[in-house]
## 1
Amino acid sequence: MTAAPDPHKGPDLALGVSIAAFPASGLLEGHVGGEKVLVARSGGEYFAVTANCSHYGAPLADGLVVGDTVRCPWHHACFSVRNGRALRAPAFDALACWTVECRDGEVFVTGKKSTAAQRGPDRPHPAGAQPSRILIIGGGAAGFAAAEALRRGGYQGKLLMISQDAAAPVDRPNLSKDYLAGTAPEEWMPLKSADWYHERGIELRLGATVVNVDPRARRIALSDGNSPSYDRLLLATGAEPIRLAIPGADQSNVHTLRSLEDCRGIIANLQSARRVAVIGASFIGLEVAAALRARNLEVHVIAPEKRPLERVFGAELGDFIRRLHEEHGVVFHLANAVTAIEGKRVRLKDGPDLEADLVVAGIGVRPRTELAEKAGLRVDHGICVSECLETSVPGIYAAGDIARWPDRRSGQQRRVEHWVVAERQGQTAARNMLGAGERYEDVPFFWSQHYDVPINYVGHAEAWDELAIEGDIASRDCMLRYKRGGRLLAAASIHRDVQNLQAEIAMERDLAPAEAGHAIAPDRADGRTGAT
Ligand SMILES: Cc1cc2nc3c(=O)[nH]c(=O)nc-3n(C[C@H](O)[C@H](O)[C@H](O)COP(=O)(O)OP(=O)(O)OC[C@H]3O[C@@H](n4cnc5c(N)ncnc54)[C@H](O)[C@@H]3O)c2cc1C
Ligand code: FES
């Protein structure tokens, strides 16, 4: 997961590098005193920061400089090159900084700076009275990012995070990748240690279920009878896997995958397994298939569509993904369905039955909006929020998989199921709970991993009239641009990270519909795309 450090890559920056020979990208990786360091040119200035991203360790020299920030090539985190701070998820930890001197046409990296300058809030919360008690329901991507942003921004009131999960917030995307494949050690999974929450005064209640929200009394009710109060509330309850509605779906060898507990349950059941049936050829289904092939299990994927992921990526990339999985030994049963599971016998609509020791269903998720509905919040295919992520009840915010927000770029209401979107919404909601009044308008981004092939997707396209393919999909070096009426809606790429970042910048600058004063229209009924 983390790139292996190679302290000797590139020049010794303490000895100086020629400004005339500086790379056109404005980014140069080298080393100083045995540490890997990145020099970034922003305008006419040079800055030096840690060379690897604090998320999964991507080499930032392969990213993009935008103003005085650098964007990570792998999952689009954004750091200030001036002070190293992580400005946008999925990275949270700051990069170290070095002093830089320019003389005689050369750039020299000298001493490492103290981290003291990074300790203050990077975007201080607005002045004025702060709510004394903030409550977050959900210990996933959005809930964690909100708590982190509140404390990093200097919020000093009481902060309580309640999660039904038995574990503190974990790296959920990894559950269908390295962790399930058995190649990620346990210590990679928690987003932060127990000490981290303790040091920041974030009270974490795990394995706790919220059963009611009372907006009048500003209290919630827990299933254990407790009823803590709040001044601001963030709903970040995510989504839950849709269960199979067929005979045998409740058998102990039939699984879904959302939590660390779910994943551990699957792994425990694999001990004596030889063959697995995966129902669904979506992101989760296919990533599970890849992870289980890494464990040398026989994997069959059964799904109703003719081509995996065609609705999201189009036919060309869908065909490539199918071939990729077949090359790794996955057997597809497409345009098919499972009608029943009887012990180890998996009955198919078309064709002979399959014998499978284990079944994993990845047939989509449903946003967990029941608390909001009961509390009388406006819910319509997700919890309806304003551009600032506030629900129809003042003081209650929603973020992540449950939130349906007015997207200025498309003029549509949007709800997506992406890790980075959930985290960034959590960050924005946190600031807004303290009165920042900040609009959420990041371009959606997600990634998916199939064996050694990463796919990065930025933007959002439910329908397009033009699909421009650059490069060669089969060679795993391509950029696909999804457009409607000539306007770029989204881009997917394999091993073209800078182009993917450039597409993100282009879409960030393209806020045409709302700027033109168009009203935001309701989305189609199913606003879901993306990662499930
Ligand atoms: C296996 C897997 C792999 C994924 N891979 C990717 C990927 O590669 N890329 C990508 O972009 N996205 C991926 N996703 C999607 C991504 O994880 C989600 O979009 C993201 O987690 C949504 O964050 P969230 O905070 O909205 O919800 P979650 O992370 O699901 O968190 C919801 C939290 O709310 C809690 N909760 C719910 N109801 C209650 C209640 N009543 N009381 C108390 N607590 C409650 C839950 O216990 C949980 O802690 C993946 C998802 C899964 C399951
Ligand atoms: S490695 Fe940089 S954002 Fe993931």
Note: The radius of gyration is 24 Å.
## 2
Amino acid sequence: MDEFHIKLGDEILKCTGDASPLGGVLEYGTQQDWTILPSVDMRATPSGTVNDEVLKRWWKEFQSRWEPNCDAVFLVLHGAMVCESTLDVEGELLQRIRNLPNGANKPIFGVYDLHANFSTSMALHANCLVAYQENPHTDARKSALRAAKLLMRHFNTGQTPSIQLRQLPLIWPPTNTGTAEEPMFLLEKRARELEKEDEHIWAINITAGFAFADTPDTGVSLQVIGTKDATAIFEELETLALSSGKIGALPEPDIESVIPSLREPVDGLTVLVEPSDNIGGGAPGDGTECLRALVTHHIENSAICLNDPEAVQMLANCEKGDTLTLWLGGKGSQLDPGPLKLEVEFVSRSNGRFELENKQSHLASMCGNQFDMGPCAVVRHKNISILLTSNKTAPFDLGQWRSQGIDPETLNVIVVKAAIAHRAAYDPITARSFTVNTSGTCNSDLKRLPYKNLRTNLL
Ligand SMILES: [Zn+2]
């Protein structure tokens, strides 16, 4: 519960117009003269199974503000949350809304992240949920506007769409879900064409799924929203998805095998992408394998960020230039080799708050205009800069570094704990990148994971 930011009632209206999907729908609704009855907003940086207490709290707040005579419900969802008592949180909540007074026929619209594991219950109990169409999610706000406009279409026409769902026998690691590449690129392209061909089709979602949630709904799915049968669309898109299902990211080399390449001179920044410690995927963001490699191989003018509140505290009384020995990172996962003992020089500290440089960034979809990394410190070991944060900070915005006095463009090598979503920020300043395999929790080799609940037909 401590990790959730909670906004209640009118407090939610303060987000109107900000860079988040919530900000987008509030702005649109205000322009359309909707009377908005703000209810509850709860969000956290991705992590493991959520305590039931969180689900109970959301429901208590939502239920207490329920207005049986409202015209519609609009939800800003993610779609891959798992709680102790249910593997399908969104489906459970939608079902409960249906059971509220006058809830049964209430139009339920909304927006969600394409990494949702879309369930039968979600399809059954909502009327129109639209997915982001881009990964990195540069279109989160735009997608919320799309959903809000479809709600307006319902108000204007009196038509109420429904959601048809087809779950595909496919599961992709996050590294295979970028929309600039196959298989997502072609699926998205074709979905947009099909959407235009028939006025009875309101929206088509290509939902890539989230492989690190172990549920019967985990995997790739399609949703068609509209007022006519979607079988033909499902058949075509399923065939397309299955034919490209074997295409995917190449096996990731381990960090040691890319070290010789790091030594080759290159004009500009080299990005070491570490999907196994993907913060946006729920990993701790404190894995030490890449830092160990930078230290061992003396990779000059390099930088890495670790989420390590304990280390930040140890530096609380340091002054610039002080040196001390710290145990860095390796505290968040049993799969990591563990904390790395390192002599470091203290450089700076801050409160860790920064304004997003890119208001369309993936981070904006999560937090709006500003992000709070918690108390931060920058330390240096030889020529390696280490940014230590107190809140996990997905590496989706360069403001994270520049606000701490480090310009990534001047570095030789930077470690990025992400799969795809960092690209919007980093690609423009990247000369080359290597995706490396480490022992973190979000490993792209799904066969290594001890699933218990998956559907049996997944390829
Ligand atoms: Zn996502």
Note: The first helix runs from residue 21 to 31.
